[in-house]
Design a protein that fits this description.
By secondary structure, the protein is of the alpha/beta class. It contains five helices and twelve strands. 28% of the residues lie in helices and 34% in strands. Strand 3, helix 2 and strand 4 form a beta-alpha-beta unit. It starts with a strand and ends with a strand. Catalyzes the transfer of endogenously produced octanoic acid from octanoyl-acyl-carrier-protein onto the lipoyl domains of lipoate-dependent enzymes. Lipoyl-ACP can also act as a substrate although octanoyl-ACP is likely to be the physiological substrate.
Length: 219
């Protein structure tokens, strides 16, 4: 069965505003007032802490973060602490899993598959690491994933490192993992890649993995 998908490209939007929009969309999707929706966004610098994380994984002081212009929010997604910022493509899929598969492990593996396929489009061999959520190139993470579900409708999602300031990851213990690094598409390729090109490939692979048909795309 092909499921219908709306896409909204929000551009640059503050994290908390995007979160409030997610909650609005979540409520509407639960009530079947909208179709499945994929939100695409870029955030100003922010650290978000998931349900299994803590502020102990922040390596710098609050004053340092204030001077660097990086905000910190605790959130109800799964996972530990991660960074969002300019040069990172974040997706928040609002999906009714009753129309896909009512299985969170399947959802996480499917998100990973989207980005593994996207990186393959750039001739990059990305993979999973047993016991760790996300997408990796060697021992460096390029896509962080953290989800939440309410009444089998998903929210929160994935953050793909296109060309973010990788130094900002050094101020935290990313995802609470001490023995792995972080990378980006720009770093791996050694060249700049246009955001629109990556978003186009992201949508193509998302549609394929989830067997969906885009019925509307708002920019």
């Amino acid at each position: 069965m092909t499921v219908k998908l709306n896409i909204k490209n929000l551009g640059i939007l503050e994290h908390q505003k995007a979160y409030q929009l997610q909650l609005e969309m979540l409520k509407k999707r639960i009530a079947n007032q909208i179709e499945d929706t994929l939100l695409i966004v870029e955030h100003p610098p922010v650290y978000t802490i998931g349900t299994s994380g803590s502020r102990e994984n922040i390596r710098v002081s609050s004053d340092f973060l204030n001077e660097a212009g990086i905000k910190v929010y605790e959130t109800n997604r799964g996972g530990d602490i991660t960074y969002h910022g300019p040069g990172q493509i974040v997706i928040y899929p609002i999906l009714n899993l009753k129309n896909h598969k009512k299985d969170l492990h399947w959802l996480l593996r499917s998100y990973e598959e989207v980005f593994i396929k996207l990186l393959k489009d750039f001739a990059i061999d990305a993979q999973r690491i047993d016991g760790l959520t996300g997408v990796w190139v060697g021992n460096e993470k390029i896509t962080a994933i953290g989800v939440a579900v309410r009444r089998w409708v998903s929210y929160h999602g994935c953050a793909f490192n296109l060309s973010p300031n990788l130094e900002h990851f050094s101020y935290i213990v990313p995802c609470g993992i001490t023995d792995k690094g972080v990378t980006s598409l720009e770093k791996l390729l050694g060249r700049k890649v246009e955001t629109d090109q990556v978003i186009e490939l992201l949508i193509k692979n998302f549609k394929e993995v989830f067997a969906m048909e885009v019925i509307n795309y708002e920019k």
